[in-house]
Amino acid sequence: MTLPSLFPSRTVSLYMARLFLVRTFAILAGLVLILQTLDLLSESASILGHPGNGQAQVWHYVTLRVPQLIATFLPYAVLLGTIITLSTLNQNSEIIALKSSGLSAHQVLAPLLLASLGIAIVSFAFNDRVVSRASATLDQWQKVDYGPVPRSRDERSNVWVRDGNNLVRALGVEGRGADTRLSQITVFRRDGGSLKQIVFAPSGERQDDRWILNNAVVFDIASRTRTRLNHVSFGEEIRPDQFTLGNINADGMSFGELKTAINDLEQAGRPTEDLRGTLWHKLSGPLSAVLMPLLGAVAGFGLARSGRLFVRAVIGMALGFAYFVADNFALAMGNIGAYPPFLAAWAPFLLFLLVGEAVLFRTEE
């Protein structure tokens, strides 16, 4: 089918696309406003509970949380926008007029599908450039209980590493490889199951295949004495990637950053199946917007005066929400290794693409 035959009327196509886009983004704005208000009711006490925080920090939280809400609920808004648009056109007999002029069901849906494809492209760019940065910053801010915001988005915080029987905690980690720098380090030296010493240091770095703590203070548990040392070495077997790749926040990384992190993990011999599923989902997630007009199309066809318009709308909503349930389930199965990463990300999309086409052909074509 050629492009002119798919969009035989430019005026009708623009009219339907405009109706669809206005309703979709109006619903999205309403959802974000309501959900952000409810979220603030639960988080504002924690934000204001930190000394020095005030109204500015509350608004800063809003700027970080709103992009996450937009990314999460945009596909829902596309689904509801589709159902409302097609239901309105059906109720006003505009769908009947379009079909009586010789348009097929796919031609009626074509403007909505093209508009939703544009939404999917914008959604991917928005998630990759805005949502990932906001998620990374918010995650680090919450780890310090809404204290001072981390200086750099690339800085990792509150990383724990095991060194034999000893435990190492670094409140800040910057850099990669041999250039990795640690800050606010605590080393818990244990003998068997008992704690022997606690070592504090404001900074640490990698030198000659071992880690060096600068200006360290050693607290001995048995004697209860403190000893200040200029340099203390530890962790000959701790690799830099154990600090830098210990806690991968996939939602806080762009597509390219996550792909690089996965390659680094594979070179370090560590499993990456769950992260690969998330990587693929960064593509299939925004593309789910293209599915929504197809799944909600059942609300636009059939005679409105038959009294089944509401039932058709409910069926469209049920198909859309069933996709979201299946998508979350498949992603969870991929995270635990039950599904291959590619299958976990794309199987629900392909399945419901077939379901939507089957329902459309069954009812209209």
UniProtKB/TrEMBL annotation:
Main location: membrane
InterPro entries, sorted: LptG, LptG/LptF_permease
Location(s) in or outside the cell: Cell membrane
Top-level taxon of origin: Bacteria
One Pfam family per UniProt: LptF_LptG
Membrane-topology descriptor: Multi-pass membrane protein
Keyword Transit peptide: no
Transmembrane segments: 20-38, 69-87, 108-126, 283-302, 309-326, 338-361
Keywords attached to this entry: Cell membrane, Membrane, Transmembrane, Transmembrane helix
PANTHER family: LIPOPOLYSACCHARIDE EXPORT SYSTEM PERMEASE PROTEIN LPTG, SLR0882 PROTEIN-RELATED
UniProt name for this protein: LPS export ABC transporter permease LptG
Organism expressing this protein natively: Stakelama flava
Organism phylogeny: Bacteria, Pseudomonadati, Pseudomonadota, Alphaproteobacteria, Sphingomonadales
